[in-house]
Write a structure and sequence with these properties.
The longest helix has 33 residues, at 2-34. The protein has 2 helices and no strands. By secondary structure, the chain is mainly α. 3% of the residues are buried. It has a domain at 11-48.
């Protein structure tokens, strides 16, 4: 249980902010120069945008199907 808690805190504390920071830098560095409708956004705006996208498109969990003959 302790190992799972450490992994969860690592994801929440390091990976999520890092991905939001990278997405913000890409948005501000590339998208604002390429298209005329995009304006620079800050960290919290990108975090909110990523949460909304996750709510709309949550993805699919991988599922493994096993046959009864495999056992």
């Amino acid at each position: 249980m302790k190992n799972t808690l450490i992994k969860a805190l690592l994801v929440i504390g390091v990976l999520v902010p890092a991905s939001v920071l990278i997405a913000t830098m890409l948005w501000n560095g590339v998208l604002t120069q390429v298209v005329s409708w995009a304006y620079p956004i800050n960290f919290l705006q990108m975090f909110g945008l990523m949460v909304l996208i996750y709510l709309i498109y949550p993805g699919q969990k991988p599922s493994f199907k096993t046959n009864a003959d495999d056992n």
